[in-house]
Structure formats: structure tokens, C-alpha cells
Amino acid sequence: MSTSTAPTRRRDDLRPALAAGVTVLLWASAFVGVRSAGHDVEPGALAFGRMLVASAALTAVVLFRGLPTMPRGRRLAAVAAWGVAWFGAYNLALNAAETHLDAGTTALLVNLAPVLVALLAGLFLGEGFPRRLLVGVAIAFGGVVLIAVAGPGGRADTVGVALGLTAAVLYAGAAVAQKRLLAHTDALTMTWLGSLAGTLVTAPWAPSLARDLSAAPTGTALTVVYLGLFPTAVAFLAWGYALSRTTAGRLASTTYAVPALVVALSWLLLAEVPAPLAFVGGALCLVGVAVSRGRSRAARDGAGFPDPGCKQRRIACTQEVPGYPCSTAARPASSRATGTRNGEQDT
Question: Which of 165, 206, 269, 338 is deepest in the core (most CB within 10 A)?
């Protein structure tokens, strides 16, 4: 490598890491923003306001870049259903959970999603149920129990925990669906269409949003705009950029920092921290996630290459879902010989 190209290569190597860092920070701030705005805006109205801003921003990006090739028929319906689940139902569950739980505790619950992704992959994608997955699920379940009884005075807030777990399930289901859909639709188009679907499904709360914001301080309206513009539109675009330039397993590991960031931001901005027992439960949840997502040495050596579910579409491997690493099963011998990584020479 010549000395003139070395600085450029180093800058290119840093960009995905910077994009991932921006995404994690923005997603962490979303938990705090939802908790703050939730004092003045009801969950459904907050979801609609967030998605309305995000859809407007993503539409502007799409128009600037030129209208993409649209999926049709069943694929369009599948993308719409994904958007309803991810941008609609997930936001509703998350917003409702944070009316019962502080932001840090909610983040600890939602971060169970990688474990649930593995379970859903075992059920629907033929990945099976290795021992490490079952052990991780058991550990994480123990953490959930501790979080459930960690309310003030040991009072269990089962409604809040149930809503947080519902958000985690929706996250996981949307992630597994996204794995399949990204093989046929690019990330920007899918995110844009999904955000439109999420906006439509939450539109019945438009009158409530107008009513709540009219009585709320200006800061609440600015928080709603922030949630739609940054943790949704900007963060998803940054995530797609990073995901197209590194392995999914490496990128997904950065999301484990989200609960810690949420706790820190919540303490600084809202003067809230989870109860001590919730910290212990959250730590168990994170340990369970780490155990369940651990891989054998052989699997680690082959991380980043397509699995049979990719149907040998190597381009899809750069768009894997968090917590769902590729395997070497479908990697052609020619790629192994030439040392291609993540299908980069095929895209």
C-alpha cells in the first residue's frame, strides 16, 4: 500500500465506527426523550408525532436522491407490515412502558431483543436451540424477574415490565423479518416505506397530539421533533451506512452499550436512576444476552458470511440483523480462497 492511500483507507475504516457510535448514542437518547415527553403527551400521540417527523425527513432524503425502485405485491405488503410492527406497535409499547418505568429500566428490558431474535431464528429460520441459547434465556429471565420486583418499596410493576417485554418481542420479530426483506429491498427504501406505514397506523392519535402539545411547554414539542428527526431518521440512516460496511455481529455488539448510556443520560437529564435491584436484574439480562449470543471458535472464524437463509445472496450478508450472525455454510470455495469479506467484492 502506498503512503498516499494509507490516510484515506484509515478514514474509510473509521467512518462505519463513527456511524455506529452516532446510532447507539441517538438510540440511547430516545429512551430519555420518550420518558421526558411522556409526562405531557400520551403514548399514542407521541408515537404519531415521532413518526410524522421521521417520515417527513426520510421523504426529503428519498426525493433528494431520486425515487427508488419500489417493491410490489407481497413484498410491498411485507414491508408495510414490518413498518406497522416496528415503527407503530413497537413505539406504542415503548412509550406506554415508560409511563410505568424509568428510562434505564425500560432500556434494560428492551435490550433482551437479541436473545429473542435467537429464539425466533430457532423457531422460524431453522437455527435450532443450542445449549448456550437456553442457558442465556434462563439467566435473562432471572434478570427480568428482579426488574419486575424492583419498584419502589419492592412493589412489582408488572404492567410496565409486560409492556417493556412486548417492545422487546416486537423489536426481535421486526429484526427477523428485516433479515429476509433486506435481501430484496435496500435499507433506505425499506426504512422510508416502513416509517410511512408507522405514521399511518398511528394517525388516529393526531387529534390527541394536537391537544397535548397545545397544553404542553415548548420543550415537549421540541423533544417530539428531536425523537423523529434524530433517533429515528438520522439513526436509521447511520445504522444502514455502518451495516453495509462491517459485519453484523461486530456492529450489533455496540448496542450492548445502550442501557448504560440510557442510565447515565437519564441521571444527568432527568435525575432518575433504576432501583438497585433493577441494576442487578439488568446486569443478569446483559449476561444472558452475552451468553446466548456466544459462538464457537469455528463460528467466529466464519462470521460475516452468508448462511443458508441468505440463499447465497452475499450482498444480503451486509444487511444482517443485530444479534443474528452469518455462518460459513453458504460461502463458496472461491470466496474462501480469495479472502472476500462480507460479500464486498460482489456488491
Answer: 165
Split into its structural domains, the chain has a count of: 1
- Residue 68 is assigned to a structural domain of this protein: yes
Estimate to the nearest angstrom the gap between the alpha carbon of 190 and the chain centroid: 14
Q: Which three cell numbers stand for residue 149?
A: 420486583
Interacting residues of 325 by C-beta distance below 8 A, sequence separation 6+: 247, 248, 249, 252, 295, 299, 303, 304
Question: Cβ–Cβ contacts within 10 Å for residue 125, how many?
Answer: 17
Task: Look at residue 197 and tell me if it is in a domain.
Answer: yes
Q: Scanning the structure block, which residue is given the C-alpha cell 441517538?
A: 26
Q: Is residue 164 packed enough to be buried (19+ CB in 10 Å), middle (13-18) or exposed (0-12)?
A: buried
Q: What is the pTM (predicted TM-score) of this model?
A: 0.75
Assigned C-alpha cell, 185: 429491498
Could you tell me the residue range of the domain that residue 218 belongs to?
Answer: 19-346
Cα dist. 246→199, 222, 265 in Å? 30, 34, 28
Report yes or no on 9 lying in a domain: no
pLDDT digits (tens, 9 = 90+) for 199-255: 999 999 999 999 999 999 999 999 999 999 999 999 988 877 776 676 555 566 667
pLDDT tens digits for range 4-23: 455 555 555 688 888 888 98
What residues have CB less than 8 Å from 180, skipping those under 6 apart? 78, 309
CB atoms under 10 Å from CB of 272, counted, come to: 18
Cell 404519531 belongs to which residue? 48
